[in-house]
Amino acid sequence: MAREAGLAHDDLMAVSAPVLCVWRHPRPVGAAGRCIGRTDLPVDPRKAKRLAHRIRRHARRLSLPREVHTSPLRRSAEVGRWLARWGWVHHIDATLAEIDFGAWDGQRWEAIGEPAISAWCNDLAHHRGHGGESVSDLFDRCAGWLARTAGPPVRCVVGHAGWINAARRLRQGGGPPLAASDWPAAPAYCERLDLC
């Protein structure tokens, strides 16, 4: 794992890293029933602003730096743009994007079909039948970002469910699950997770 950073999973866990305050983005418009990874769906501006207010209050309460890291996808970046309007530094980084589902991205799950989905679920770590990233690729990308940003200060991140789950497993010393049954449930929209 972490091939880009030249680190093994165990080495990554040994890197001194502060808590990450990670929020999942607001619910995107038009996502229901669809495979959404890199599909750049909008969010309700009021929901993006509401989450930005929550992040700002949390940072103020803990005296965190006024910086936020987001992916370039609108459902994440719109929250960062609100914070930037209020004087925050907004770092946009493609490394924080959701998994790339290739040809599946944006498609309705029923159009993808049960056989293709079952093949993916049975080899979750390595399957690339959709032509995009495997879950192992997502973990490599996530591990690289965690290694690159290790060390103080505490970082505020607005992320995506897949990226957040990968970061959570990496922080707990795990790697990509081999089967979908081992993949954790997605955090709720706008939920905060503090990752040590």
Describe the 3D structure.
- There is one protein chain.
- This protein has 196 residues and is an alpha/beta fold.
- The chain has a single domain (9-195), classed as Rossmann fold (3-Layer(aba) Sandwich), CATH 3.40.50.
- Helix content is 38%, strand content 11%.
- The protein contains 7 helices and 5 strands, in the order αβαβαβαααβαβ.
- The protein has helices at residues 9-14, 45-62, 74-85, 109-112, 114-122, 135-148, 161-171, and strands at residues 20-24, 67-70, 89-92, 155-159, 192-195.
- The chain has a 5-stranded mixed beta sheet, with helices on both faces.
- Strand 2 (67-70), helix 3 and strand 3 (89-92) form a beta-alpha-beta unit.
- Helix 2 packs across helix 3 and helix 6 crosses helix 7 (161-171).
- It is globular and about 50 Å long.
- The protein starts with 8 loop residues before the first helix and ends with a strand.
- The model is unreliable at 1-17 (pLDDT under 50).
Q: What would the principal axes of the Cα set say about the shape?
A: globular
Number of helices: 7
Helix content: 25-40%
Counted up, domains total 1
Which runs of at least 5 residues are low in confidence (pLDDT < 50)?
A: 1-17
Secondary-structure arrangement, i.e. CATH architecture: 3-Layer(aba) Sandwich
Instruction: Tell me the major beta sheet.
Output: 5 strands, mixed
CATH superfamily: Phosphoglycerate mutase-like
Strand and helix order? HEHEHEHHHEHE
The top-level CATH class is: Alpha Beta
Rounded to an integer in angstroms, the radius of gyration calculated over CA atoms is: 16 Å
**Distance between the ends:** 19 Å
What class do helices, strands and sheet pairing give? alpha/beta
